[in-house]
Amino acid sequence: MKASRFFIGTLKEAPADAEIVSHKLMVRAGMIRRVAGGIYNYLPVGLRSIRKVEQIVREEMNRAGAIELLMPAVQPAELWQESGRWVKYGPELLRFKDRKQADFVMGPTHEEVVTDIARNQIKSYRQLPVNFYQVQTKFRDEIRPRFGVMRGREFIMKDAYSFDKDVDGLKESYRKMYDAYTRIFTRLGLEFRAVAADNGSIGGSGSHEFHVIADTGEDAIAYCPTSEFAANVEAADALPLVAERAAPTEPMQKVATPGAAKCEAVADMLGIPLERTIKSIVLATDNNADNEGAEPTIWLLLLRGDHDLNEIKVSKQPGLADARFATEAEIVEWFGTPPGYLGPIGTKKPVNVIADSTAANMSDFVVGANDAGYHITGVNWGRDLPEPIVADVRNVKKGDPSPDGKGVLDICRGIEVGHVFQLGTRYSDAMNATFLDETGKPQPMVMGCYGIGITRILGAAIEQNFDDKGIIWPEAIAPFEVVLCPMGYDRSELVREHADRLYGELVAAGIDVILDDRGERPGVMFADWELIGVPHRLVIGERGLKDGKIEYQGRRDAEATLLPAGDAAASVAQKVRAALAR
Amino acid sequence: MKASRFFIGTLKEAPADAEIVSHKLMVRAGMIRRVAGGIYNYLPVGLRSIRKVEQIVREEMNRAGAIELLMPAVQPAELWQESGRWVKYGPELLRFKDRKQADFVMGPTHEEVVTDIARNQIKSYRQLPVNFYQVQTKFRDEIRPRFGVMRGREFIMKDAYSFDKDVDGLKESYRKMYDAYTRIFTRLGLEFRAVAADNGSIGGSGSHEFHVIADTGEDAIAYCPTSEFAANVEAADALPLVAERAAPTEPMQKVATPGAAKCEAVADMLGIPLERTIKSIVLATDNNADNEGAEPTIWLLLLRGDHDLNEIKVSKQPGLADARFATEAEIVEWFGTPPGYLGPIGTKKPVNVIADSTAANMSDFVVGANDAGYHITGVNWGRDLPEPIVADVRNVKKGDPSPDGKGVLDICRGIEVGHVFQLGTRYSDAMNATFLDETGKPQPMVMGCYGIGITRILGAAIEQNFDDKGIIWPEAIAPFEVVLCPMGYDRSELVREHADRLYGELVAAGIDVILDDRGERPGVMFADWELIGVPHRLVIGERGLKDGKIEYQGRRDAEATLLPAGDAAASVAQKVRAALAR
């Protein structure tokens, strides 16, 4: 490609509505332009990267035996009524009427349509398994579209749907997709993790999210660097950090801790580690909804001072599905004191005490005294207060043992770009998608679904790879792999000759190269291509050529290096190939 | 591709709603499935052909210097309000509200969005010309979607938009697109014609439609086989078929022609050629709309007996823009007789007489006598009645001289699959899309737009290429170029060996081949692939192999031929390449 035949729309300034770096850089690099909230034009530079992502996704989906088709963006309401999602799906499902007042939706996803295809096309177990996929424009009417392509309303997805005759088949289809996703994100050149997400519907690891690792990611991920374990922090099991409860060594003692309402302050004041303190969190559950005057049940959750409550885990505890934080009035009524110095000993009215599995194994610990300005030290389970209910109700943290027993957890942040999910028969039951099994009996097809956010990947890749000059693309999805910057293309015959020669050699080598023949000043050229993030740059100048040299600089390199002019194309082609083979 | 890893969804019966052959065959061949009226799933077989069309279109658009981008399907109403089309566009424009009650449309076309891009991105004449294109899903809420992909609601289009600094630039951009379209339809392997369509807005041939020629086409096209001339029958100029009026040779005479109200019957009865008769058509225009009692003006249009009225041409005549057919009451009042024996001589009240340019040069002709059961023969202009107003008001017909003077017209039927259009400044004026010219003065960009109906091409290709067994694809857009049908793939090692070898050889030769390893009976295999329309078939059977032969049959061939087993792959690859190079 020659730049004079291409469209480059770089900007000096990012738009005011761009909050995150990928959004800013995609606009500044001329990849996207806003049309309406969460709706973008993909300008030529952006589309090139999208197509490269799509191509890799297609190759790996095909390799995994999935078959491409294309379903419509506009879907009739009837199918959504059949599945039940016409009612269940919130306002993110864009509903509208056509000119004949028939109800339609703009598809945010295609389970209904593909299940309709399967029930019409698949009659026999002999036709199973099958996995249909598409690369398609979807629409989700986000209440607050933001972050550019990261949370847009109109976006491009690859979605696949597998149909199997039984759960074993589903598990095999699922594994194939899991492996394909692993290959896809590896080939894209992104640092990523597959994160277990228990979907609860089938059991086991029925669902994995694929996250691109980036400091700016929305999700906190707990992972074990020495094993495959990875899970959302909210979903990761927290093992007890104290294996066995030690025998008491201290007497229980009420101590003045004026102004030290937080565990950190208490530990400071008493000169003890934070790990010796226990924090108190008060929840309430309402009883007998019909009787307004009925008293709630009050729950006291005890966690080690350095731990955080995990509300999702709490909600899975018996009796706590609908728990809420207690009001200050309730706390005063049950504990006799406002929040700050609460504890399990000497409450005014009875409370249910739940200790996190780590807190439950502590001894000689410190808790609030239910008396403002006082704590109790040397507290021990059994001796000073009854044994609590024990449960995992905290978030894991860095340094915790990995639940798989194979190391120690670290925490990173991630951006979800893919999701594989064992659906089971949720849609085939609702929509009567059956096949005849080996005995001639109709059985519901067992489904899986597998999504990749094509456009979102661009944003995630940038969040992972940028500096203050702009984007740093992995070679596989860079809009161009190599840029040639001739210094004086229009003035110097020598420069033009070498630039054209290098261009020809790189094209012949199958390299995706752009020759910047726009006649811009070097400063403008360099700034544009660093902003756009082309990973390899060759600068062709008269001065260097007099010594037979061409200047090479990788996008991550601090300094340029000189290459012999004759070898420059082969050398940079080799670098690109090596990167793509990673 | 191996059929066992693919999805083939052929059907014995076409759906009841399929009216035309391409719709029937696309459903039966498993290319499309209806989701709602005018909304289809593209099943794997169909998608393969779509992708091939897209690929050829992209290659030729890129070659012509157009730059690909991607605009959204969902567009904000504001842009359509700016252009004025929010009001002007009928109910085919699907309008809806998002969750915040903001107005949006599903884009049936993208002039507004692309003009918005241009006015934001293009500041200077130095950035012009530029031509942006996309391949994108569009929606048009047809009142009566039908004919499968030929008139769907959701469909795939390639649309391109050129921006130039002046009309000369536009004409060059237009010519490039015209040439690209010519290459595209040639490469697609379709018989087509570029048809002039005067859009009236810029003058000259500001618009061409590209039609695939097919007997079932909606449009009648007049074309000259010995020149480039082609136009919709409605738009083609009709030259006078009689170059100069001959001198009268017959006296005028009233003759009885009982029951012969039509020219054909009169010619029969009188034993003269139809070309000697003149037909009368009576139109009326209403005067003084405010005064209900005002008399209309009555017009008598005279055409040679074998010619048909062209209402579009009539409407362009002075005073006839709002003409309507006269009522029977008006005819009786003005002519003194009901329709059937009308003519220009002896009307009861004065009428304006317009003769078509051919009729105006006739002599010794026959007209109605304004007396039921009677005609007048030997009529001559000037001698027997005043000279008429002369105008081109008829449709051309086969055998007419071509308006370009380079031959004789023929008539065929076509399906419009592409359209190139000189828009001018209609959108850039309305949306203030200006650039600074060489003198620093803002000027409106001069636009062209260029569409190709990607999905429609499939239907048109089938309407042009089918037989009673199914589709006959041109190689360029066939879902597969070659099918291998092994007789007993699962039973005969010899057959399997040769089938696998041929498959490997064809894949290595870059041929898009499918190996039917499904284990179906020969009859089913043959019927499926003939229906699907794969242009080349090799049958691998034990009997032939014993003689070292493989059976080859082209989809249009009446009979199979035998190829030496060792050369079969090379031979069929050669056939495919030859077809693609056409």
From TrEMBL, chains A, B:
Residues 33-474 form the Aminoacyl-transfer RNA synthetases class-II family profile domain. Keywords: Aminoacyl-tRNA synthetase, ATP-binding, Cytoplasm, Ligase, Nucleotide-binding, Protein biosynthesis. It is an enzyme of class 6 (ligase). It is found in: Cytoplasm. Its main location: cytoplasm. CDD domains: ProRS-INS, ProRS_anticodon_short, ProRS_core_prok. GO terms for cellular component: cytosol. Catalyzes the attachment of proline to tRNA(Pro) in a two-step reaction: proline is first activated by ATP to form Pro-AMP and then transferred to the acceptor end of tRNA(Pro). As ProRS can inadvertently accommodate and process non-cognate amino acids such as alanine and cysteine, to avoid such errors it has two additional distinct editing activities against alanine. One activity is designated as 'pretransfer' editing and involves the tRNA(Pro)-independent hydrolysis of activated Ala-AMP. This is Proline--tRNA ligase. It comes from Paraburkholderia caballeronis. The gene is proS.
